[in-house]
Amino acid sequence: MRAEIVSVGTELLMGQTVDTNAAHLGKALAELGISVYRRQTVGDNHDRMLAAFRSALAENDLLFTIGGLGPTMDDITRDVLAEAIGDPLRFDEQTAARLRHFFQSRGLPVLESNLRQAWVPTHGRALDNPNGTAPGLLFEVGDKTAIALPGPPGEFLPMLANEVVPYLRSRTGSRTIRSRVLRICGLGESIVEDRVRDLMLSSNPTVAPYAKVGEVHLRVSAMHDDPQEAERMCNERVQALVERLGTHVYAYEDETLEAAVVRLLRERGATLAVGESCTGGQLAARITDVPGASEVFLGGVVSYSNAAKVAHLGVDPALIDRFGAVSEEVASAMAEGARTRFGAVVGLGITGVAGPGGGSEHKPVGTVHIALADGTRVVAERNRFIGGRTDVRRRATQSALTMLRDWLLEPGSATAV
Prior knowledge:
Strands 2-1-3-8-7-6 form a six-stranded mixed beta sheet, sandwiched between helices. Helices cover 40% and strands 25% of the residues. By secondary structure, the protein is of the alpha/beta class.
């Protein structure tokens, strides 16, 4: 069974509202084994909506619309959808009675525009909406089905769970899709794809890559009539991917890199301190966003100026004079200074040129030095990150967390002092 989602609303096209509903709907359909062929967003325009609805119905079994079911003049989804599927609307007195009660019980007048919401499909029915006035609409004409859902998330989500999913489950039976997400650090998208290319050629399970800032995600999806078999197929493909990618797979599903690192710090019994310059405290912020980080994170210093590097991290001024603040030597001294000042097992230091200005021929924008100190050695690396200021800073913290994770995976790393 194939579906298309059409979100309606000029405010979506103008960026005034973020369409989170379509994401929730797509996830629900995947769990039901329904493939989403395409997603569209159209403004509140009759002709464009009609063209979108007709093309969706021509190419798919199911059409879902989101938004445009309210009482105002620009809420024309019900009318255009009825025209597109060829099912005239009828006035439903039961829905009208519910609307009258809703407004009268609140001491509000019942306007003619409010009763527009009582028009429902002739070949279908209204979908209950206890959280708002606009009912959802279910159209069933021949082998085509269209479901119109309200836009407000507080109405959309309960209707999806309580009305739409049970209806679709009655049609799809047990057919389902099981998915897992692998999160990968330390490898670029092209390298990941090269290592698992043959595993990506299968149509069931599927393996789809998604490039993120400083990491790569792989989504594995398996479809089967038996949910347990779909789960087995999915897990089998995940295991094959892990064998190819090794420890670069840092987590599954929604666990972030910082959460994975905090978990490893806790498991290894290690503590951490950081010294940051160009990232302005973002590394410490990412770590402390993780619940329970206080067990392993002792503190950090944002040493943006050279004087702060000297005063608060104990960096030798001679190092700055000789090599410059953006250098391997200063990053190493910052890492060791953070470690010793806070009494941590391991320290991280970051210094660089985030841009857009401040670069030079030898140290262009995007140059970032990251160092790790554990009391027995200091490891440092020079990076040249691409992108704007925000991207450079994000990539820097991502690389620092990856460096720390690699250290934590080394045998005996947590006992270093």
